[in-house]
Write a structure and sequence with these properties.
214 residues; mainly alpha; Four Helix Bundle (Hemerythrin (Met), subunit A); 7 helices
């Protein structure tokens, strides 16, 4: 739901900062943990009802989320454990933000919004889970309408611009719906890829048997 060129532009914008972090000797894990701390600040301020400040914290935490990966690649400290650590911290970072929102709406009773937040949490977790399971099957899966960058942008800028208004609540609904749509998209994408691989394997096996017969 965000143009790919916009994502690439922003990634390129962060590269010099990643280079600077490498020169200063800042480990990527430090950036990852910093992003988590800022996300906790976002969750806390959402819980208190300071939506615009919380939105700003969400955007800053998203910048650190991208920056740690750039720094890891530039510094040569990219590793399997680093990828696991980053992915795990990202999940916690996202959870604390939604928990903060849930706490606020529990104290200012909005049953429908609590359900929307629960759907957004489950959808966000499933998007990441399907990707992780696909990678475990040696299949890359990065498609979908509501990936993590979209969730950060919509939630962060939505809170900053609209505050606690009906428009922000609509954005929460959009995130809740399209995160789950994205999870289904990814499952279907892997299903189609798997079928193609199976057919290719079957065809190869048939051709091999024919050669053996000859």
């Amino acid at each position: 739901m965000l143009p790919q060129k916009l994502k690439e532009w922003f990634r390129n914008l962060l590269k010099p900062i990643g280079t600077l972090c490498t020169r200063l000797g800042i480990h990527p894990h430090v950036l990852t943990i910093t992003g988590l701390v800022i996300s906790c600040s976002a969750g806390f301020t959402f819980g208190l009802g300071f939506f615009r400040w919380a939105g700003l914290f969400v955007i800053i935490s998203g910048i650190f989320d991208m920056l740690d990966g750039h720094t890891a690649r530039i510094s040569g400290k990219k590793s399997s454990f680093g990828a696991l650590f980053d992915s795990t911290i990202d999940r916690y970072a996202e959870l604390v933000v939604f928990i903060g929102l849930a706490i606020y709406y529990m104290n200012h009773p909005h049953p429908a919004l609590i359900i929307i937040i629960l759907l957004a949490i489950s959808g966000s977790m499933m998007v990441s889970y399907v990707k992780a399971r696909a990678e475990g099957l040696n299949m890359e899966c990065t498609i979908g309408l509501m990936q993590r960058p979209e969730r950060i942008v919509y939630l962060g800028f939505g809170a900053m611009i609209f505050g606690n208004t009906i428009l922000f609540q609509i954005i929460l609904g959009v995130i809740a719906v399209f995160t789950n749509v994205t999870a289904v998209q990814r499952v279907y994408y892997i299903y189609v890829r798997n079928r193609k691989q199976c057919k290719a394997t079957e065809k190869e096996n048939c051709e091999t048997k024919e050669e053996e017969c000859l």
